[in-house]
Amino acid sequence: MNRIDIAEAAARLKTARRVMVLGCSGSGKSTLSRKLSERFGLPHISMDRDVFWLPGWVIRDKAEIRALVERFSQGETWIFDGNNTETMPPRMARADLILWLVPPRRVSLWGALKRIPTSYGRVRPDMAPGCPERIDLDFLRYIWNFNRRTLPKMERMVEENGADLPVCLLKSHRAVNELLALCAEEH
């Protein structure tokens, strides 16, 4: 994995045209993606909102998911947020940079739980229409086990399909805020 530090990631963001944002549910990847989209004028593509879900929490079939990811990946510019390992190769083939949120699991768990007062039962901006926020025991287990079950698959995908692609690991909200502050500086 071609790891870069926060300062280099901020410098690269100023000229990047296509950025992947990865991270566990609740880690802040959609929030970061939205902020970067606004800052740099790049379209924000959310796997949850734009690719996976149809109203009523109905998942699209795999062929349609692959076709949408292929189409979106071919765009000239984007911030693409989402983890699905099966769709990582076409995104990585076009990406200039990966920002990977890897906070401790308790931070991601808290990030998901704190959605309850503001979003539970409502559709968040990063979710598909007709898919109101729901938090259940399966979702919380997914977050709790993410680093053990999902993270190794994602790491393998990056090694196999994007070993030379610059990757910035953001291990805390402080690191994300540092990145955003550096991006806000004019040079």
Automatic annotation (TrEMBL):
Q: What is this protein called?
A: ATPase AAA
Q: Which organism is it from?
A: Martelella endophytica
- Gene3D superfamilies on file: P-loop containing nucleotide triphosphate hydrolases
Tell me which SUPFAM superfamilies the record gives: P-loop containing nucleoside triphosphate hydrolases
Record InterPro entries: Cytidylate_Kinase-2, P-loop_NTPase
